[in-house]
Amino acid sequence: MPHTTAFTLSAVRVEVSALWRLAWPMLIGQLATVGMAVADVAMSGHASAEELAAVSLGASIWSIILVSVLGIMMAINSIVAHEFGAERLARVPHIVRQSLWKGFAVGLAGCALANLATVVFDHLYLSAAVNAKASLFVHIISTGLPAFAAYRALYGYSTSINQTKPVMVIALGALALNVLVNWLLIYGHWGLPEMGGVGCAVATSVSMWAMLAAMLAWIRYAPAYRATYPFTHWEWPHWPELSGMLRLGLPIGVTYFAEASAFGVISLLVARYGVVQVSAHQIALNFSSVVFMVPLTFGIALVTRVGHAVGEGNLRRARFVSWVGVALSLTAAVVSAAGIALFRHQIAAAYTSDPAVRELAAQLLLFAALFQLSDATQVATSCAIRGYKVTRQPMLIQLLAFWGFSLPLGYVLGLAPAGLPWAPDAPMAATGFWIGLVLGLTVAAVLLTWYLNRLSLRRMHGAHAAPAAAPRRQAGA
């Protein structure tokens, strides 16, 4: 492949086509995975407002831990992509085996942390029934975390060698299983106990273990994995490899934590305003997470495409791929923003039959539509940066945007604490927090765009200065 890529219309079309071929199976898989959370909220919402509140609060803890684990496990994506691009296929099996060890350890740690975090419910303005159900939801669903972390290790391996259709098929199967078990356990069909929202937790945990088993079977029998098959022999944990993965993955986990925790903490703070506020907030947040899968999937594809280019030592193409991916994500964001704004009332009605919850959720969905452009930009740019195996700077930017800007502003607007001259006269509740989220995402998008431009130019000019050494140095950077 030539080591120059011009920004011509023809070249852009070719790259968009390549990104789309890689991304579309992952997009369906990601939507199916998030569909499990949507099914949990929607099906529990039609049971009762109390069940929806319990699931919403439990999900606020669960989602923070889940995406943090996902972020830590994403290190394998860029590592394998670099090795694959550099045609060092013999290294890949060892990386996968070590990533599985890492996955089980991270999953167990996440499980313990999720269970400890339920003490937060004791300090909120919750009824005893909602507190007990939310805590039990977390205790049960967390048992799926070790399987989820190991699955994401295999997911990253598969997508980084351009095998994305398995994750689509497996996720669709898991969604079907999750909906079936939800239906059985939430409402007590076929003689099974009527567990309400807690049944969602059982269904999700079962589905995660089923996804891991299916992925292991697919890798075992599909010919596409033969050249890099990781299960030829047993291998104990290798600390130098694991420590390298953690150095790369922990900043991604912290980055995901910064964003998810901002949303999760808001859910907990909004809880003081009652079931209607917290349920409407969760509906808007839940649907936003579905829409977010589109730019996130393009971002995961960008990690692979940029990683392959960097592994080859083709830094000009890496920059080209990065900006095409960002533009594609923004285009999708314009479409999704328009759709949310136009159909916000119908979206809210699909989640709940409570009129008060529907009306407030429709208002909050306007904010969800507004931040689509910033959200798509920040996820695409941060993933392109990770394709260069750079993770610390996106972490710092996300921490600044969400914890240094978004949450403080949302706290002031949402709670209107006494003694602050710039606070509103009355608390804006969930609306105030969503204003903070929109502005926080905008800060992240601007800073990450600036950094991606700076990083890609610096790497490209560095490759021109030392062309002979560039491929090996960039692949291991």
| SS content category | mainly alpha
What's the alpha carbon Rg, rounded to whole Å?
A: 22 Å
User: What is the overall number of helices?
Assistant: 17
Rough outline: globular
Range of strand content: under 5%
Q: Termini separation (Å)?
A: 22 Å
Rounded mean pLDDT score: 85
Task: Please describe the biggest sheet, giving its number of strands, its sense, and whether it closes into a barrel.
Answer: none
Number of E-type strands? 0
Q: How many structural domains are formed by the residues?
A: 1
Low-confidence stretches: 467-477
* SSE arrangement, N to C: HHHHHHHHHHHHHHHHH
Fraction of helical residues: over 70%
Model description:
It is a single chain. With 477 residues, the protein is mainly α. It has one domain (9-476). Helix content is 80%, strand content 0%. It contains 17 helices and no strands. The chain has helices at 9-45, 49-73, 75-85, 92-117, 128-141, 145-160, 165-187, 198-221, 239-270, 275-312, 315-342, 344-351, 355-370, 372-387, 392-415, 430-465, 470-476. InterPro entries: MATE_fam, MATE_MdtK, MdtK-like.
